[in-house]
Design goal:
With about 425 residues, the protein is α/β, with parallel strands linked by helices. About 45% of the residues lie in helices and about 10% in strands. The model is unreliable at about 350-380, about 380-390 and about 400-414 (pLDDT under 50).
Length: about 425
Amino acid sequence: MSQSKIWPLPTVRFAQLSEVEEKRPVALLTSDAAWEQVSSALSLPLVVQAEPTDDDRELMTYLSDNLPSQVQAVYVVGTGVPVSAGKLVAQANNIPLVLVPTALDSDAIFEAHVAFMSGGLIDRIEGVPAHEVIIDWEIIKAAPQHERAAAIVDVLAIVTALLDWRYGEKKGRNSADQRFSAWAAGIAAGLASQAIKSAKAIGEGQVEALRTLVNLLMISVQLAHQLGHDRHQEGTEHYFAFSLRNQGVKSISHAEAVAPGMLIASALHGQDPGALRDALNNAGIRLDQVRAADVRLAINDLPSLCTTNNLPYSIAHDLDPFSEEVTQALDRAGYQTDAGDTGGWEPVSPPPSGDATGDTSEGAATAPQSAQESSSQSQATTPNQPSGQANSLPPNVASSEGSQAGTINPDQNQ
């Protein structure tokens, strides 16, 4: 299948927010904390603003449909849900989107799409990339360490995503338009290797290292745009994060959900997760935010989630959640779930895959709350006037150091 379009990356401007001059009437999407942090430095001709707090597609559609006609640009200040909302509102109204992140929390600021999770179903909407991303290093450096450069998770995820991509190829389950590409894998492996080398400096908030992280993120996202898919950067580790969300785990960040999935996926592939764990720790990523019981329930549901959503093939599709192999992988990843770890709750075996699929689909058919009801989750207002550092990828992922990026041979034994 040929691509009909290759998306560009946003323009990235490195500047102090006090230097930003915006004359277009603006709609602002933000959070109370983010706007409080930057409002004294960023002067915008605001018409309306909203603070969405949940990935509620119905609410975002409501905001899109009711944007005042005089608005000529959408600004997003902050991270997370407002970024998703901004993409949809800007796309629906065919106006530019400008992102002002308060932390480098994920690669979403450079991507065109938005993904929602509802009733066990993942709804991926292809939108448009932001017109511009404005990065003020003083704002980024002021973020808490565990948030400041959490996007490194999306680069380190390349390690396990490449293992899954090769796994799908060896099983003959990759679709025709997502066949394993050695040149793309080589580029991606080089990005992950550099992220591991830079993790400590990134975690310390060194601007040069943070700039490197921005470059790595942009190259990885552009590679996905070129390929027409993101097999090189998303696999079991991201599927695990979706499964956590499907279990109702919403209080942790994207990075704090993906990082455990990365360690688990590495162990499932027979790798030693130690190098990844060290890199995550060096970068300041918190690995202890997920409850043991939620890890077990997410693992239990993972094969069904993958099948129900027809996700690109990975090792997660072939899991037997209650097998000794999975138990040992969880142990190596540091997320063993025995009775003591789960607070005395005993996980129940999942139903047969057919029943699980049916239940998930049925749950997804439940009508969402109306936009009027959802609006309680957002305030829409008219503003007032005034262990040691690792330096290489695990075996079978990266080649030795040198000028050539690591490559992966799909026929190589794991």
